[in-house]
Every structure is written in structure tokens, then in C-alpha cells.
Amino acid sequence: QDWDFITKPLREEQPIPEATTIFTDAGKKSRKAAATWKEGTQWCHKILQAHPEDSLQTLELLAVVWVLSEFKGPINVVTDSFYVAGVVQRIEDASIKEICNKRLFDLLMQ
């Protein structure tokens, strides 16, 4: 007997009602990435330091990777990075091969 499995995507096209919304950003000059979210009436944040080899794109990706690894349950992630939004959109179906940029490879493998 042949089984056909249909995988349910982990990503939604529209915001998830009642889910925590986390805003991410990064600064090229500051060499930091940040995630900001609200818990009740309190705003919380996490500041992430860049590695020496980070570009602005890998810093933006670092913030989203941190969010995805730290938050459990449904979340909405907001990024202003077209690059990161594209990566997130395609990552579920992707085969990741080793690439020259070790930092990018490490982030994608998380």
C-alpha cells in the first residue's frame, strides 16, 4: 500500500489572531539585531550581538532565527528585511547545501 503524506506548512500567509507578535530588526552601524514583543502590558526585547563575519542580511536573519528558537506556540514575526522574508517563505521546502558563507550556512541550519 502506497501512502501519500500531505505536509501542513508551519508558516501562515496571514497574521495569527491572539498570537504573540514579535518585531525584528538589525542595524549595520550598531552591529546588533533585536527582537521586540509585548507580554501583557510590558514591552520586552532581546539584543543580539553580531559575529565579525555578519552582514546586515545575516544579522536580520539572526534575529528571526533567535525568535523561532525561543518562542513556542503560534507567533507572528514582523521583519523589514525583504531578504529574510524571502528566506522564511522558501525554507520549509528547501534543501540546504553547504555554501561559501559559513555564517549564513550556520544560521540556515538552525
Automatic annotation (TrEMBL):
Q: Where is the RNase H type-1 domain?
A: 16-110
Does the UniProt entry include the keyword Transferase? yes
Instruction: Name the source's superkingdom.
Output: Eukaryota
- Give the record's keywords alphabetically: Endonuclease, Hydrolase, Nuclease, Nucleotidyltransferase, RNA-directed DNA polymerase, Transferase
**SUPFAM superfamilies named in the record:** Ribonuclease H-like
Q: Which GO terms describe its molecular function?
A: RNA stem-loop binding; RNA-directed DNA polymerase activity; RNA-DNA hybrid ribonuclease activity
Please state what the protein is called. Answer: PO113 protein
Organism, scientific name: Toxostoma redivivum
The taxonomic lineage of its organism, from the top, reads:
Eukaryota, Metazoa, Chordata, Craniata, Vertebrata
